[in-house]
Amino acid sequence: MQKPIHPNRTPAYTDPPESFMARAIELAKHAATLGEVPVAALIVKDNQIIAEAHNRRELDKDPIAHAEVLAIKTAAEVLGDWRLEGCALFVTLEPCAMCSGAMWLARIEHCVFGASDHKSGFLGSVHDITTHSQMNHHYTVERGVMEAECVGLLQDFFRAIRAKKKALKKAGLE
Amino acid sequence: MQKPIHPNRTPAYTDPPESFMARAIELAKHAATLGEVPVAALIVKDNQIIAEAHNRRELDKDPIAHAEVLAIKTAAEVLGDWRLEGCALFVTLEPCAMCSGAMWLARIEHCVFGASDHKSGFLGSVHDITTHSQMNHHYTVERGVMEAECVGLLQDFFRAIRAKKKALKKAGLE
Q1: pTM of this structure
Q2: B104 Cβ partners below 8 Å, 6+ apart?
Q3: Looking at the complex, does the CB of residue A100 fall below 8 Å from at least one CB of chain B?
């Protein structure tokens, strides 16, 4: 169970984090079938999924269309408020600067991620956004939930892309 | 004139940065009349403004609706590509983690800002996102363009809010 940052508040979820991450992995797999880098996120409040999204950068030709940002936008619509109090965000890949910043702005209370991102992760890998005491909101982070599955789906996606490129090159088409 | 990060490329603008920042300040003043914290951004390519936006967080009840993110989304629509190559972003206030991250994702080449944000600025104040060599894109930053005007409009906005609160309290209405 999550350790809440505000111990007197109801936690966002009481079910095991794996039960939510499994759904995020399912969504990420769907994103891969659409040609998107397979990353998906969902937002949980009172142990219920209130928003979910996968990466849509290529589909929408939108640099902002990361899974976390799309899930946050939907959750704000569902709750009718930009303050996502009492909410946890689950995501298959460690959030980048934009997404970890969006979580801070949206007052997310807890973040659970699967795979670490050593090239652009801003929850511990490249930098840790939660370390700045002067910022006006703070959230807790749980790393590595279903990590092997989350890493695996990214590896499979990029391996398939490389194989396709190699085949095209061999056929003289690239 | 901006110092381009890629010296062989056409710079995003050749007019003085103040000419673009003056338009951003005008937009930010309009945001204040709508009850939004007065921050505005615009994107320039080939010396032309191709997108502009002001903060709409309260109007849209959307934690993501910062001026920079909205301007980036519009510019991507205008160009039909999520890669905003050859573009500079002007903004009245130092970008937060989300917005400085969004600029990185969108491949913005240069950022010009007015006022520094000592509580949440991620281009030098709280942290500097441009310092991470492992990230796959880098942009240059010019700080303090029309700083006094940009600071002034925020001070005026928050002073007016404090005065209103004080008056309501005095009248026993808050």
Answers
A1: 0.92
A2: A96, A97, A98, B129, B135, B137, B139
A3: yes
